[in-house]
Amino acid sequence: MAIATVLKTGPGSSIQDLGRRGQANLGIPLSGAMDMKSFAWINHILQNEVNDAALEVSQPGFQIQFDSPTYIAIAGAEAIVRLNDQLIEKSNLIAIQSKDLLEIGAFLSGSIVYIGIKYGFKTPKILGSRSQYKGLTEDSILHKGTKIQYFMDSEASPVFNAKAKWSTEWYREEEILAYPGPDFHLLKENLREKLIGQTFRISQQSNRMGAQLLELLENDLPELPTNPVFPGTVQLTSGGKLIILLKDAQVTGGYPRILQLDVESQWKLAQKKPGSKVRFKLFQPRISTISR
């Protein structure tokens, strides 16, 4: 078994896969990759299994060294990537040789870079997943000196006949699609119009548990009993704060659930930096008519 060693990392970077489904009754959040579109892309390029674990890097300056040959793939945020201090093209397979050093530099757009490896990173599975989560896995994030196992590929070659093209345009849009939440009906008409018509900004107080929005939505909604919540649930506090729950969020909550983001909008939101603007677009179901 080969070893990759993290030489440098900022806070928040971790190992993720598809997460832990079916554990909510135990109070265990879904976890998993925040941006499933990018996560799925790198496993597709590597011809991996869909659940093979990858690195989720949320800060520039990340460095990792591989002790044996393999292939990797990179997607997600647009970032400056160097291999052995040389700028590289990152939209296709990257052949890794023994002692190669990979560095993720400045993020030009987006906020999460995914690094996949042939056959996936081989950390222990806890409740069917390798996704790191505080209190469940030995470490909740990657640290300097973290060693991660992987399968070597002695035939790794830098010569390829095709180059895949990864676009970042999809997450640059401000508009995010949402459905009315279970408590949407509690909003007065003027609040509904403000919620859907206003542009909001992502707060610095955002992480894998949830994204807060800076602009307040003043309200007089009643307190509610604790109810189930999911990644993508938009909660409105009595103080007017809007909180969009993400992959590591709790499985229950007592704030009104006014919206529910669709899955692609959750991936898009995950790539938004603090200060980025978003606008909710309410899903309108199509009504078909049959003429007689």
TrEMBL record:
Which key words are in the record? ATP-binding, Hydrolase, Nucleotide-binding
Q: Which SMART domains match?
A: AHS2
Q: Which sequence ranges form a coiled-coil region, renumbered to this chain?
A: none
Sorted alphabetically, which Gene3D superfamilies does this protein's record hold? Cyclophilin-like (2.40.100.10)
Q: Which Pfam families is this protein grouped with?
A: CT_A_B (PF02626)
* Record GO terms (molecular function): ATP binding; hydrolase activity
Q: What is this protein called?
A: Biotin-dependent carboxylase uncharacterized domain-containing protein
Q: What organism is recorded for this protein?
A: Algoriphagus alkaliphilus
- What is the organism lineage in this UniProt record? Bacteria, Pseudomonadati, Bacteroidota, Cytophagia, Cytophagales
